[in-house]
Every structure is written in structure tokens, then in C-alpha cells.
Amino acid sequence: MPWPSRKRGKGAAADKKEPDAKIAKTEEETQDKEEEKSTKPPAGSSKSGWKNWKKTKESDSGGEESKMTYCHWLLKSEPESRLEKGVDVKFSIDDLKAQPNQTTFWDGVRNYQARNFLRAMKLGQQAFFYHSNCKEPGIVGIVKIVKEAYPDHTQFDQKDPHYDSTSRKENPKWSMVDVQFVRMTKRFIPLSEIKAHHLAHKADGGPLKNMMLFTRQRLSIQPLTQEEFDFVLSLEEEKPH
């Protein structure tokens, strides 16, 4: 019996409290066309933030994946109800905890770069679970990858809001992974607090100076360096500002 669909809502709308988000369209609408053609970083992005990447040309059907050294991730999901083509895409960390074995598939990603990040994930790697598009976005817990990338079945489901009529079963465009709940963070780590550290690190140097949460904030799947992950995780030990 298949798990109930996660009804992905991750990153499909901008975080309401993210001051740098200036685009009203979804990540798929704003980035897919350019990223379908090329894996080059966007204009204005930090060169040092991309220094570990070997960029390759990709085709509509997937192409060769960019090689990277990132070993942790940040996954955005919407904890509040929002209808997308008549389907509620809400999925909070409590919804994940309620799944069988506290595990589910991470479906519905329809952005080429985010998809490539999914395909780069390795078994056992950990990710922050980030509540997005809500009153106070931020990190609420940790999950781990328990199954590496495989075809996302929702791309073939005409009743699913993420159906893609251009994708073929013999050569699927979109992938998903399975994730399992690990634990809640010791406290909620809000976006505003992470951003304050990011700005300080940009000015004076530090592990968050190139964090993709602020350089590519529209992406619902984001890589983290070991230094970024460790620093953000250390914030759970501090008193809220």
C-alpha cells in the first residue's frame, strides 16, 4: 500500500518574512526555463559560493548532474494549508512524524536545479526541515535521506497538481527521495536569526556568508556545506535573540 502523498508545498511561494524575496512567481516559474538550458549560476551570485561546482550542460530529460561537495541539505515545506489546483499542499514536520515509520517521499519538485540537488543526495545524509511560506519561517527539525533519487510518480498523475504532460515514463524528468524524521531541533531557529548571522558573516567573514538560503532563496531544495550545517545547528544551544 503506497504512502499517502506528501502533497508538496515546499518553496512554491516565497517566505512571507523573507525581505530579499522580490519575485512573486513560484520557483518553477522563475527559474525552470533558464536552468533547463544551463547549470550556470545566476547573474550576481557569489563566485565563492559556487567554487565547488563543476558545471555541466543539461538536457530537458535530465542530463549529466553537476558534481558537488555538499553533504547536508535544507528542505522547505509549507506547514499551513494552501490549495494548489484544488489540492491542499500543506505538509509540516508533524505531518512527517505521523507517517508510517515517520518516513515519506519528497515529491512535487518541479525546478531543474532543485531536482539536481535531489539527485545528488546520498543515503544517510541529513537535512534541516524548514517551515516555509508561513507567519514565521525557519528550521524546526532534522531529517535523513533513506532512499536515493528515483522517479517522482506524481509527474504522471493527471489529478496531481504537479502533473507534467511533457514527462515520459521511459525517460522521466522529475525525481524524488525518501526522507525520515530524525528529531526536532532543541528550539525553533527562525529565518530572521539565521539572516542576522548571514549578514554579519558577509561583512566580517564566517560560514554563512554564501548560504544559499539567501543567495538563491526561491529554491525549495538547498545544499549546505558542513560548516553551514554545523553553525546553524549550534544555534539550537543558544537562547533565542
Automatic annotation (TrEMBL):
Residues 1-10 have a biased composition (Basic residues). Residues 72-234 form the EVE domain. Keywords: Nucleus, Phosphoprotein. InterPro entries: 5hmC_binding, EVE_domain, PUA-like_sf, THYN1-like_EVE. It comes from the Eukaryota. The keyword Metal-binding does not apply. GO terms for cellular component: nucleus. It holds the Pfam family EVE. Residues 1-64 are annotated as: Disordered. Specifically binds 5-hydroxymethylcytosine (5hmC), suggesting that it acts as a specific reader of 5hmC. This is Thymocyte nuclear protein 1. It comes from Baryphthengus martii (Rufous motmot).
